[in-house]
Amino acid sequence: MSDLLYPIKWLSKASAGDRVAHELRMRIISGKIESGTVLSENKLAADFSVSRSPVRDALKVLASERIIRLERMGAVVVGLSKKDIQEIYDVRLLIETFVFERIVKMDRQDLVRELSKVLEMMKIAIKYKDADEFSYQDVLFHETIIRSIDHGYVSMMWQNLKPVMESFILLSMRQRLDEDIEDFERILENHALYIEAIETGDRKRMIASLHQNFDDVQEVEDLWKSQQLMTKGVEPHD
Amino acid sequence: MSDLLYPIKWLSKASAGDRVAHELRMRIISGKIESGTVLSENKLAADFSVSRSPVRDALKVLASERIIRLERMGAVVVGLSKKDIQEIYDVRLLIETFVFERIVKMDRQDLVRELSKVLEMMKIAIKYKDADEFSYQDVLFHETIIRSIDHGYVSMMWQNLKPVMESFILLSMRQRLDEDIEDFERILENHALYIEAIETGDRKRMIASLHQNFDDVQEVEDLWKSQQLMTKGVEPHD
DNA sequence: TTTATACTACTTGTATACAAGTATACTTAT
DNA sequence: ATAAGTATACTTGTATACAAGTAGTATAAA
């Protein structure tokens, strides 16, 4: 099972099941485990040096995220297609637009302050070329916005989406930090725009910012495809 | 553990874990198990005459639905508050509005036909005073709409929402069939309106229909509160 | 050569066992 | 009587065992 894709430090308090889920998710989304591969609980348990119980837990989680399909014999890897990425951003747009409508009716001072802090963190992360930390703060940025309206079921939708998003962003950012570091400036500007939109309650600017964000990711998506090709066959997993 | 709230026939092919999840969900949403109750895996296993494994699975599912909270010692029942019901309908509105925008750009003939069939089924269910069958078809109606656009992540959100909705509708319809049978006519009309809106691509009518649907549920919600009071203390669960 | 049967090696779902940790109650010392 | 420590009876998470079922292969019959 060798080297881990998911940051170990993010797993400090996690159970074995969580570790397996996070690592497996990364391997699937990165393409290290190819679509179509059939995963065996027993083999995974052996690979990760744990018993079947945490592996089962992990597979259930990944199935709920639709990156694997639980069938009668074995769990088949589905992975993320171009369509999936598009769909994820559909949902993000859907959620964040809804959230924005609520936000503009609230006192947004604390939220803006909190977001500014996260943005500063992102800047530092870039300065020190820490892709993982940058990704963490990027995800946190949007999570902070979403949670600010205190809506349990919207939060739930976010929670369901988050792990896949996080992994995807993590992989994208790692690659871009190596190859397209100037992109990060644009991402930062875009987040600053988002904060402004919230501050002023300017819906148009917010939508623009979200779309820009999506365009950025579209670009990432191409890079990610190439990454998939790169890693293809590195570890055929049986 | 005595009598079951969830229709046994819906569980024909379900695992023990699913059975526990469905039944537990019904008991929590109906108020038969009160908010604040701490559930023990061992006790539940004994109650349902299964081992801890399926119970654990069930609790994980219910936690992801936010009707229980998994804590260090025991799973505490959260249940559905008035706010939760409102939130669920927020999300439904969000999803179905998104779906509608896609639908109007498609060929809707097959969908309309399919929905008409489901609506006929609903009529028959009322005719024979079968609240469970009616609920099933009602949920199926909306699921059919949502799945018609073939959007994996929107379907995923629906899947996450569905179990709680289904239980809630089931309980509401059972009570209303006894006490307010004339309501069902209005529900049928409303669904017919929805089909028309899809057929003609009339967004306004669709929104109106959705809101009407929600108002119906608001009414249900009051009934449901009284039901909670009614069943309160029937089985104090320890 | 083709078809039917049985065997092997898997699979899943459930049950049970165990280690490690935590809250409650009960000492015991002050 | 009160504070500190210590049992104890729980809890969770993981490991392991087992029953039932399935796919594919090999063997036997036609």
Automatic annotation (TrEMBL), chains A, B:
SMART domains: FCD, HTH_GNTR. It comes from the Bacteria. Residues 14-80 form the HTH gntR-type domain. GO terms for molecular function: DNA binding; DNA-binding transcription factor activity. PROSITE patterns: HTH_GNTR. PANTHER family: GLUCONATE OPERON TRANSCRIPTIONAL REPRESSOR, TRANSCRIPTIONAL REGULATOR, GNTR FAMILY. This is Transcriptional regulator, GntR family.
